[in-house]
Amino acid sequence: MESSLLAEYNQPHSPPSTASRIFLASFVTATVSATILLSPFLITPMLPRAKFGALPYQNTPTKHISTALKLITKHTTTPLSGSSFIDLGSGLGEATLQAAPHFAKSYGVEINPTLLYASKFKAWRAGTPNAFFSSDNLVTLPLSPYHVIFMFGVKPLLQTLTPKLRTEVKKDSLVVLYRFKLGTELIDEKHFEIVEREGEITVYRRL
């Protein structure tokens, strides 16, 4: 009995079938793809917010971006053709791309690589040479070069950026928020004034 078991053990084993290899490769590919695609919703929110300014992805509907651009055009003191626009936490680049035809340069900052490369692809496909996307850290990104700062200003992000908004935004620049509002500590005769609200868009001017 022992010799027969040993003989069976020593028999050469056939390699995995082609079907098995295909299944394994498909499973690994699907797992990696799902991880990448879900990273805006599962991985990015777990990054340290104080260090990266990371937040879950939520898009800004086109109608609200259109409202923002209308109010910006109405209240800006600098011609848009010579101004720069930036969206802090640009997601899939909706606001950056929609603003690009109106501004000299339109920037989107997004820490999540999936959303970042999707935005770059959309800009390339649309042929928008003045729309730029990067993964700069919102906490350390200088705000002084921009005439219009747009963001989905959830409370944790605004708390992180309040010192930068107070010290870096230059005079007469506009800060435009979708859905949320600047904290009362920024609304005074030294920092910002509320210019106009329409729907879920609020426009502020740096004094």
Structure description:
By secondary structure, the protein is α/β, with parallel strands linked by helices. It has a seven-stranded mixed β-sheet with strand order 3-2-1-4-5-7-6. The termini are far apart. A hairpin with a 2-residue loop joins β6 (192-198) and β7 (201-206). Mean pLDDT is 82; it is low at 32-54. The protein has a single domain (62-206), classed as Rossmann fold, CATH 3.40.50. The longest helix has 25 residues, at 18-42. It contains seven helices and seven strands; from the N terminus they run ααααβαβαββαβββ.
Strands, helices and their partners?
Elements: H1 2-9, H2 18-42, H3 49-52, H4 62-75, E1 84-88, H5 94-99, E2 105-109, H6 113-126, E3 131-134, E4 148-151, H7 155-168, E5 174-178, E6 192-198, E7 201-206
Parallel strand pairs: 1-2, 1-4, 2-3, 4-5
Antiparallel strand pairs: 5-7, 6-7
* Secondary structural class: alpha/beta
Give the C-level CATH assignment: Alpha Beta
Number of domains: 1
Radius of gyration: 25 Å
Task: Bin the strand percentage.
Answer: 15-25%
How many strands, what sense, and barrel or not for the largest sheet?
7 strands, mixed
What would you call the shape?
elongated
CATH superfamily: Vaccinia Virus protein VP39
Count the strands? 7
CATH fold description:
Rossmann fold
User: Could you estimate the helical fraction of the residues in percent?
Assistant: 40-55%
Overall mean pLDDT: 82
User: Architecture in CATH?
Assistant: 3-Layer(aba) Sandwich
